């Protein structure tokens, strides 16, 4: 376990299993998206890996550490419309874990990844191989996953700028500032 950063204002938010799952999902989703019909074996491997990572993430959302758990999702999801409305005016609030938009993204991404991997698996079975609605659903939902991934990255970059905090570094290290960075007054 890495030593705590020297700054006393830092707190561990993202644990190693969550960070590893996050980055592995990012890698294997990209591999799966770029390999259909060309590298079928690699595509299937990536898809099954994503499915396994999803199962782990769902379990970790129940049994994991504080910021990995899903227990605050309902409250954060209810706050999402107001959060997005305030975001238009540059008001972000301060969240150590996921902000309401991040919580909505998590739910949407997990749901779409589940649909994508399940329909992908279905298309390899004798019963569903070549069935148009299964193939179409897999294709459209996989594209929607990539659109959400792009929106996720753009949202993280926007929050980095608005809050003057490197959220990518915190997802790599696990550490985040406990308190908001004081803004300069004009």
Largest sheet: 2 strands, antiparallel
* Poorly predicted runs of 5 or more residues: none
Distance between the termini: 42 Å
Number of helices: 6
Q: Please tell me the overall pLDDT.
A: 89
Question: What does the overall shape look like?
Answer: elongated
Percent in helix: 55-70%
| Helix-strand sequence | EHHHHHHE
Question: How many E strands?
Answer: 2
The percentage of residues in β strands lies in under 5%
Number of domains: 1
In short:
This protein is mainly α. The chain contains 6 helices and 2 strands; from the N terminus they run βααααααβ.
Describe the protein in words:
The chain has six helices and two strands, in the order E-H-H-H-H-H-H-E. It is mostly helical. A two-stranded antiparallel ribbon has the order 1-2. Helix 1 (16-34) crosses helix 5 (132-163). The relative contact order is 0.15. The model has no long low-confidence stretch (mean pLDDT 89).
Provide the fold topology.
Elements: E1 10-12, H1 16-34, H2 40-63, H3 73-87, H4 100-122, H5 132-163, H6 167-173, E2 175-177
Antiparallel strand pairs: 1-2
List keywords for this structure.
mainly alpha; two-stranded antiparallel ribbon; 3% strand; 186 residues; 6 helices
């Amino acid at each position: 376990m890495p030593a705590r950063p020297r700054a006393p204002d830092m707190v561990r938010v993202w644990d190693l299993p969550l960070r590893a799952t996050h980055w592995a999902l990012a890698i294997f989703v990209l591999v799966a998206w770029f390999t259909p019909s060309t590298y079928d074996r690699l595509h299937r491997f990536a898809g099954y890996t994503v499915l396994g990572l999803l199962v782990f993430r769902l379990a970790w959302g129940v049994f994991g550490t504080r910021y990995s758990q899903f227990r605050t999702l309902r409250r954060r999801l209810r706050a999402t419309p107001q959060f997005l409305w305030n975001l238009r005016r540059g008001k972000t609030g301060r969240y150590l874990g996921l902000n309401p938009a991040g919580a909505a993204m998590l739910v949407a991404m997990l749901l779409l990844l589940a649909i994508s991997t399940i329909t992908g698996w279905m298309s390899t079975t004798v019963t569903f191989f070549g069935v148009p609605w299964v193939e179409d659903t897999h294709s459209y939902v996989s594209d929607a996953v990539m659109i959400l991934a792009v929106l996720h990255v753009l949202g993280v970059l926007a929050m980095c700028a608005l809050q003057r905090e490197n959220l990518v570094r915190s997802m790599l290290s696990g550490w985040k500032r406990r308190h908001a960075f004081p803004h300069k007054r004009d």
